[in-house]
Amino acid sequence: MGRRTVTVPEAADHSETSPGVMSIADTAPAESTSRTTQQTNMSPASTNINSYFPFFFHLFSLDDIIRTISNAVITDDKTFNITVSRNNMMERGLAQWQRQKKSSPSYPIKVTFLGEAGLDTGALRKEFFTGKVAGFEERFFESGPHGGRPKYSLSDLDKGHFRTVGEIISASLAQGGPPPNYLMLWCYRFLCTGSIDFEHMEKNDVGDEEYLDLLSRVETATDTSIPDLTNEILNCGYTGQITIGRREEITRAIVLHANLRLLPMLLQIRDGLKLYGLSDLMAKYLDVCQPLFVPGLEMTADADFVLSVCQAEYSETGTNQEKVEVMVMNHLQDFLQELEQESVMERDALPSLSPKTFLQWITGQGHLPVLKEERKHFNVSIKFNHHCEKDFGDHRICYPCVAACSNTITLPVKHMTS
After folding, report:
1. Which residues are within 8 A (CB) of 341 and not within 5 positions of it... i.e. 6 or more apart?
2. Which residue has the higher pLDDT, 115 or 132?
3. Tally of CB atoms within 10 A around 418
4. What does DSSP assign to residue 311?
5. Which domains, from first to last, does the chain contain?
6. How many angstroms separate the CA atoms of 387 and 395, rounded?
7. Mean pLDDT score of the chain
């Protein structure tokens, strides 16, 4: 199918108003116009999804969704270049994304890490997306047992950070990065529809510790103690009598207040998700897209997956070299499995060591490929260096060498025999 050419206007703002959310947008705090024009410079791909993809109403699987937005990436020799430091990828990455004036995220993302000579053939981009999407969960969302919801931050809202979050999530899904499958269901459904399902909103949808604590105190309050909560209850928009007999109504008001104040943040994220027409796909195929945003489908690489994709290039069968290489692979298997079985305390002490980060080190990504076809052909080549002294001269400590562009790691084996 031929790709439709998209004209991207110069120096335009990324933001776009959706007719379906006008009534909600009107109630959100207005953003500074001068601030908005500084944030981003290009419009995302057209949101007229029906004209974009003539097969739109024939999408039935997650693979179809990913392929559709991947095909919406404009490939005409232009790139969206991001140069960022590894030391502060979260904040610097946001700033560089918003400051980019010469291109648009509608084009392929090309990443350069400061101080490194690596050429981005896809691995650096995946590493950038892996770090950003994982970092968003901590920086912009409050996690709970039922998923995450946006943090209430008017500062980030004013700077357009939530819109940038949405754009980076879209780019991650379209260009080989991980999905943000850590959102609460009600947040995801709002991103799809632009409206709130008040009828089914309940206490489990609240994640803010302040309001969870207030709900707990209201639930255990007595006739004599509930007046002490008057100010906090009134601040949640409740206007009725504050008595034990109205406990259910009070609880309802707290739940609605805790969640409705997050709508401006969700609206900005939804604006960002218009990139590549993703928000329209989510609206049409809400259930199909859900595993990309809501917990349920395991996307993180574990030890078994890493080992299953490792393809070792052994020496001739029966030789001493082959025996040593098999021994190295056994040690690697033990190492990855032990990392997975470590206690919480041990993981907190060494958070950078896990099967996920091991895979990310070699390939740039720590997640399972979303596309079934891509997962089928995904592999890591393992080579063995029996003569490292010839390559590196005299040395006492051997290190593995990684070529992320080809998903290859070369393991030294001299230490196994000396």
Report:
1. none
2. 132
3. 6
4. E
5. 19-196+261-292 (3.90.1750.10), 198-258 (no CATH), 303-416 (3.30.2410)
6. 12
7. 83
What's the pLDDT score for residue 350?
Answer: 61
Q: Which two tokens stand for residue 71?
A: 């095909």
Distance CA 321, CA 22 (A): 68
Q: Which two tokens stand for residue 141?
A: 């969302």
pLDDT tens sequence across 356-394: 889 988 988 888 888 888 888 889 999 999 888 887 788
Q: What is the DSSP code (8-state) at residue 21?
A: G
For 153, the token pair is 């931050």
Q: Please write the tens of the pLDDT for every residue from 35-67.
A: 333 444 444 444 454 444 444 445 578 999 999
The CA distance from 177 to 128, in Å, is 8
Q: With 0-12 CB in 10 A as exposed, 13-18 as middle and 19+ as buried, what is 105?
A: buried
366: its two tokens = 């720590």
* Residue 133: partners with Cβ closer than 8 Å, 6 or more residues away: 168, 169, 172, 177, 178, 179, 180
H/E element, 357: helix 355-363
Name the region of 91 (left: φ>0; alpha: ψ -120 to 50; beta: rest): alpha
Q: Which residue has the tokens 């990392």?
A: 339
